[in-house]
Amino acid sequence: MKKIISATLLLCGLIIAGFSFSDKSPERKIVFTPNAPKPIGPYSQGVLVNNTLYVAGQVGLTLEGKIDSSSIENECTLALKNIKAIVEAAGMNMQHVVKSTLYVKDLKNWTKIKEVYGSYFQINPPARETVQIADLPKGAHFEISVVAVK
Global pTM? Predict the structure, then answer.
């Protein structure tokens, strides 16, 4: 009986090790679209790993790289438009977004931000966290990053 248990445990260990220590690297593809602003630093707009897309934080930049801070609604709309363009460049849509992180300079703008954000995620919105922060690139007041799965 001890030999059967030992053999079973050894076999289970080998099976687990085979799955855990695979030599195969995940498929990794850089996603870039001219329909969103070019990165302003050493990062990619998005990285697709197998069927999961990681989108870099987007602020309310125009395609020319100018921030539109005329209103928090305009900033949010541009940031989400940029997110959507990157998600679509990866062959997905906003319903594939499963997680978002919002960075906000002033939570007093939350009602306006929530309104714009909600217009992009009307059905089955993703999990989300919102963080108030001290500063953002280019003097932005809002930034969003997302993870999407197809």
Answer: 0.83
